[in-house]
Amino acid sequence: MPRRMHTDRWLFGVTLALCLVGAVMVFSASAVIAREQFGNAYTFILRQLVWLALGLAGMFWLMNLDYRRLRQPAVIFSGLALVLLLLVVVFLVDRAHATHRWIRLGPASIQPSEFAKLVVIFYLAWFLEIRRKPAVGLAQEGMSAGINNWHTLAPALGPVLFLTVLVLLEPDLGTSLEISLVAIAMMFVAGLSGTYVLGAGVAALPALYLLIARVPYRYMRVMSFLNPDADPQGSGFQLLQSLIAVGSGGLFGVGLMESKQKLFYLPEAHTDFIYAVLCEELGFIGGAIVLALFAVYGWRGIRAALRAPDDFGRLTALGITAMVVSQALINLGVVLGMMPTKGIPLPFISYGGSSLLVMLLATGVLLNISQQTE
User: Fold this and answer.
1) Mapping DSSP to helix (H, G, I), strand (E, B) and coil, where does residue 110 land?
2) What is the value of pTM for the model shown?
3) Percent of the chain topping pLDDT 90
4) What is the DSSP letter of 94?
5) What is the pLDDT of residue 217?
6) Which of 101, 117, 144, 143 is closest to 330 using CA atoms?
């Protein structure tokens, strides 16, 4: 008799809760600027709700689709080819905000780099599983025996590095670093030696230094992070306004829809810095609840990874959890002044269709893995 599968209610519940919080806060943070730009206060929230509906539909579909079907080579390489094509096409369209990150489709737009994160997770999970070294006596060693050699590392990292470089050229340093971190986390759990990880980190430092020091706007972001008061009306303006918003909320907040900083003081209030508006309106308690929701998401994701019945499921669950939690931590670190500005949205909450869609699709896969845990 087949085993009855149960949905992880904790993971499902926190995902819906984060989406609900996101929809409310996107409307609150964007209504004024939407009225100013488009003459309609509901422009941004209506767009977000369309993407939310598409994302939830995709999540429910993937919840009921056996995740093992995603490890078929035809699926893996079709996904790689499609994302690669989109990352090339993005350079052929008009620049937006001085970058090549979006492809416009009528009134909507997609950001291929968001889909690159998910494709990298599936590719690495598939490749690392098939490279597992089957040998007698290696049952306790797991996958590590087949990972620490260049015959595995080169083909594993080749496509990942290629996609990362394309994202970096858009330019989008934050997303390229996030893809790299997720890939390293997956390979480390798969058995990659800490020596390789440390060596890769040391080797990347000079390149990272040049990417920051030789690019004026990135260098200015780092300097404004270190001393925002040096130019409060210029490079330090966004960080200072974010900290003012967070501090103004106090314990209980000033009330929903009552933020002052979103009134053209805080740039990107409905996207990258939406958490600052949330803290201002809902206070420390509201901000802490959102942190708790992401913590629960991470807990259930790791639990699903530990109990997955195969290596593909284990690594996929780990990669998705690392993607969501690391992106949340980076965004919160930027908003709270603990990291330089990187342009990374807050998962499920920030305005942005591509990010919301990818996060919900990934969560659908994670929920399916959790249903089949041992």
Assistant:
1) strand
2) 0.93
3) 68
4) P
5) 86
6) 117
Q: Could you tell me which residues come within 8 angstroms of residue 280 by beta carbon, excluding any fewer than 6 positions away?
A: 245, 246, 248, 249, 253, 254, 259, 260, 261, 262
Cβ contact 186:124 at 8 Å: yes
Between residues 25 and 225, which one has the greater pLDDT? 25
Asked if 337 and 243 count as a contact pair (C-beta separation under 8 A), the reply is: yes
CB atoms within 10 A of CB 253: 20
What is the rounded CA–CA span in Å between residue 96 and residue 90? 11
Q: Which pLDDT tens digit goes with each residue over 145-174?
A: 557 777 778 888 899 999 999 999 988 999
State the DSSP string of 235-291: TTHHHHHHHHHHHHTTTT-S-TT--STTTTTSTTTTTTTHHHHHHHHHHHHHHHHHH
**pLDDT > 70: what percent of the chain?**
93
Please give the Cα distance from 135 to 249 (Å, whole number): 59
Q: Which two tokens stand for residue 113?
A: 């780099």
Lowest model confidence (mean pLDDT) among 99-108, 127-136, 184-193: 127-136
Residues contacting 93, CB < 8 A, separation 6+: 100, 102, 103, 104
296, amino acid identity: V
pLDDT of residue 11: 97
The whole-angstrom distance between residue 88's C-alpha and the CA centroid of its chain comes to 21
On the CB side of 245, CA atoms within 13 Å amount to: 33
Which of these, 209, 114, 98, 196, lies nearest to 149 by C-alpha position?
196
Taking 50 as the threshold, does the pLDDT of residue 205 lie above it?
yes
| 340 neighbors 221 (Cβ within 8 angstroms) | yes
Verify cis geometry, omega within 30 degrees of 0, for the bond prior to 206. no
